[in-house]
Amino acid sequence: MAVYFVPAFSGLYAPYWKENARGVIVGLTRYANKGHLARAVLEATAFQTREVVEAMEKDSGIALDVLLADGGMVENDLLMQFQADILNRTVVRPKVRETTSLGAAYAAGLAVGFFQDLQELKAKWAVSQSWQPQLEEAEREKMYQGWIKAVTRSFDWAE
What we know:
Strand order of the largest sheet: 3-4-5
Mean pLDDT: 94
Number of strands: 5
Shape: globular
Low-confidence stretches: none
Radius of gyration: 18 Å
Number of helices: 5
Order of helices and strands: EEHEHEHHEH
């Protein structure tokens, strides 16, 4: 069963730019349960990440081989594996999961001379865990096309 959640609460941003889109849940049957909904919410994050990665690659002409993930959601191993599967790329979680805060601290430390240079900071970065894609190409694209179909259902709800 494929349930999709499109979190377009105030429209859709990159790569769609549809301010009149609204959130939808599609693919429900009488057999759908709260587990299907919870998974659809997690998967929506991965699908949206794939869309942004593909848009960035298209615009820049640079292929992304590995996704370095951070933030609170990286604690969810299921999400990280699905992200690797739907991107068809390695996903890496660093030991320090809140790298935005760490980056701000590093910048301040560099500014006041606490750290010698960028090489010293790069040496501090370490991998906690990584995930490799395990999903077959046909299944990956079937799921992604379902996502695209769900997203198009969210278009033009607001007048």
